[in-house]
Design goal:
There is one protein chain. The chain is an alpha+beta fold. It folds into 2 domains: about 1-175, Alpha-D-Glucose-1,6-Bisphosphate, Chain A, domain 4 (2-Layer Sandwich), CATH 3.30.530.20; about 185-280, Rieske [2Fe-2S] iron-sulphur domain (Rieske Iron-sulfur Protein). Helix content is about 25%, strand content about 40%. The protein is built from 5 helices and 16 strands. A 7-stranded antiparallel sheet has the order 1-7-6-5-4-3-2. A 3-stranded antiparallel sheet has the order 8-16-15. It is elongated, with a radius of gyration of 23 Å. It binds FE2/S2 (inorganic) cluster and fe (ii) ion (FE2). FE2/S2 (inorganic) cluster binds near residues 225, 226, 242, 244 and 245. Fe (ii) ion binds near residues 42, 48, 154 and 158.
Length: about 280
Amino acid sequence: MALLTFLSDLSRQFLPSFSNKTSLVTTYTRELPINLERMYENALDYEHLPFLHSSTFSKLEILDAGDWGWKAKACLQPKSVFNKMTLELKLDTEKNRWVTKTLSGLGKGTEVWTHAIPISENKIKVIVDFYVPKLPFFLRKKYTELYSDLYAQLYDEDLWMMSDRQKELDKLKKTDNLINEENKILGTLEEIKPQLPYNFEFNNKNYRLIELNNNLIAHSTICPHMLGPLNDADLNNGILECPWHGYKFDINTRKCISGQKCRMAPAPKIIIENKIISAIKN
Ligand code: FES
Ligand SMILES: [Fe+2]
């Protein structure tokens, strides 16, 4: 499949008989229940591509990045020499848009122009135009379907991240109904053990109780990077991986072990007395 797509794209790029024109292939539009700030943040956030969009991108190596946008070497799925490309995204907030260009590799010369129009405080409309140079008529339908399906999926995934992040940011601002518990009984060993990993709330924050080396231990379910959800995150030998950008954390030390400067929030201590499990303020 990767080879087929690669060959069709190669014919587009190199066969001389096609027009040199760059044409608008299709437009994808969608209303999103988020604000412009989240959307721009998402456009600049290259780190999420191989993690949140892991079924589309197999790899991303950043070459340059800033407030202006980013430039990176990327590889689509499946990982193969045929699926490599260099991408560049430039954000122009004055014009409410960003342009993603494929500078080399698969899809060379294509440009994706996205305009984000605010509809209300927490609602925007994105209008995404796909331009492809030298596109022969027999590939037009294929490219239209490919882009429409791909962007529907990418925006489903982005919406999950943007709206969950917004919810967590809103929670942080709320100071009413704050609870201050010193300890909380979670249940008996008999009740809780079959439910592990077990998610619970303590002092208005969410934690997950897990079993590690025959001990019960709790960890925060909010990633310290951009408030990603860790309540369902993959856990291997005490190492957690955040689904949004792939940062890895050691549950015991709370340290980020994938190289970034951040640390998980402390979690309550777990004690078991007379087969009753309690969370104690740390
Ligand atoms: S939110 Fe970015 S790695 Fe978790
Ligand atoms: Fe995305």
